[in-house]
Design goal:
Blueprint lengths: L15 E4 L5 E4 L12 E8 L12 H14 L3 E8 L2 E8 L5 H16 L13 E4 L5 H9 L1 H4 L5 H11 L8
Antiparallel strand pairs: 1-2, 3-5, 3-6, 4-5
Helix pairs in contact: 1-2
Amino acid sequence: MEDLSQAVEDPWKDATRNSTPDGVAETLLYSRAMPSTFLALNVHIVFGTKHQAPLISPDQIEDAHRYLGGTLRGLEAVPLRVGGLADHVHLLVGLRGKHSVSDLVREVKKASTAWMRTTESNFAWQEGYAAFSVSPQDLPAVDRYIANQEAHHARTSFAEEYEELLRLAGIEFDSS
């Protein structure tokens, strides 16, 4: 059997010793093994207004998208693209390890509902949402998809779009 001990790099090879200001020796590890936590967690989140009613007026849409993006930043997520129309939104979001999709959506909906009710007293979001993982190589395509919502919805409804997204993701649902 071949001796692999020489082939495996010693993780302590690059360790150095430093002294802290109080004189205590500290060992620092400079290794390529796992120096930190790295994540590529991107998600496309879609949800609509209650009963898919057009509750976001045309003059509010851009402000609503900016508000949603700001809320995501406030929750320490990375809004990559926010889009949608009067009856629904799409959020392309980079997540951190501490995020739970359900908690993030709940907080975004809660904050944006309070903000929207300052001008639309009957405003409410639908109860559920759809969330789809997005690989780094697919980010540009999803970004374009969200950016082109107005053209897309000239030929298809939000309900049709939602069902198609679920189908494409292999998610079973009751279409009745």
